[in-house]
Amino acid sequence: MKQALHPSHPHGAKLTQIFGYGWKWLEAPLEEHNINTAWKTNSKYRFKPRVLWSAWQDPKRVIGVRFGSSTSYGLIDIDHNSPNLERIDDICGALETIGIVRTIILRSSFSGGIHIYCPLPQHFPTFSVACALQQCLEAQGLQIAPGQLECFPNVKTYGKWWDKQFTEYNGHRLPLQPMTGACVLDEDLNPISGAYDLALFLAQWDNAVLQNDAETIGEALTIARANRRRRYRTKASGPVEDWKNDLEVIIAEGWTDHGQTNMLLKEIATYGRVFKGLGSSELVEYIETTATSCPGFEQWCRHQHQIHRKAISWAMSASNYYWPLGSTPLRDRTRVGVNKGRAEEARERIAAAVSELGEQIGLTISELVKRLTKAAQTSAQTLYKNADLWHPERSQPAMPVMDAIPRVPDTPEQVRAAILASLESVGNGPITRLGGENEACIFETADLKFKPPQGQEGGCGGKEGISTGPGLHWPPMEWQEGAVGDCHA
Fold first, then answer.
1. Cys-Cys link to 391, which of 316, 330, 387, 477 (CB 3.0-4.6 A)?
2. Are 94 and 199 contained in the same domain?
3. Residue 140: which domain range?
């Protein structure tokens, strides 16, 4: 068997092994003051590994790749102006239902789009991965749509192979190419230390490969592929009684070690949906009640504080994958009112948290936000959307809050507190998880955090910009709204 000639550099060798399908690759020029996304497909020759590595390092062009018949990763693409940017936690929760518990979140370019990479522990059939990614997101009420939320690989149509007509999977840009603005983000969507370094991305990749469970993923892919084929079915087929008995044995034994939560919740959800015929709300209660009463729950389950949220995710997933035994098959997977339901649930949690905390005399807005987000298990952004429940200047507060800060602060700490309180009083929370301790500036809206610093007209680095790492200079080009998009075939 022929061995590919990989680059001598270890990073290049690893990159070209991951993105090893060299046919029908894509290319777009990267100009000095603009990122051109006029993607062109090269159909003349295959991208060889060493040439691919050289092209990745080229600061004058952007490279995109496609998928072959098998893949060791998946990718979720969220556009910079998509409302799904607020649902990244839901997307990651959906991925957990198919065994993908570790992901890598990247800003794809200066445009602010988000790429969520899903490293897999081995190669799987590409079409099965495409089906599983799409179905697990749709099961959580997330709609797949071009330019908003897309899965790579995509569920492509088959070409007329008997007439020598073939179709390729959609292509996506390579990660962290120099001068494109791509970087690794933390869970709050802020660049982390070494964010532009390919070594950090590859290290996170190796860790995710170890954490994501091959058996669970393989089972999910089998189900997803079967769901794709199964258009009509009036009752379960095969040894139904054996299936029921197997589920009962698994559930009865409960937890025996760490790392079993998602697998057990899946089995409980399946049993409740298929053999008990439970609807969504009843299924959530059944999953939570059954799981918390299973043997080993208190000893081995590390997600006890998240069990309700996970029960909701698995109930929605099971309701879309399965239907009650003997009933009419599901034909319409459209989820109506999911966003409204989530908003109402968040509002209820915030109201409960306000009531639970009771009177907290002397709290600043910053302290109040921190306590409420933790107690309600929600983001600061969601908290401010429901400011009428707790904010002293937008409602009758449920708890007294410090009305004023000394006019002439005595210490730097008081100055910082005054600035934060002023910003937060109009709904602008801190960008970093450090609560604003090390922030240089606060942008007006959350989505503007992706913009590169401007020049002297109002930025942080003057006209000369600031250095962002070896070989990079920020801003290398003028900011233009929507200048960079992700490539799609």
1. 387
2. yes
3. 10-211
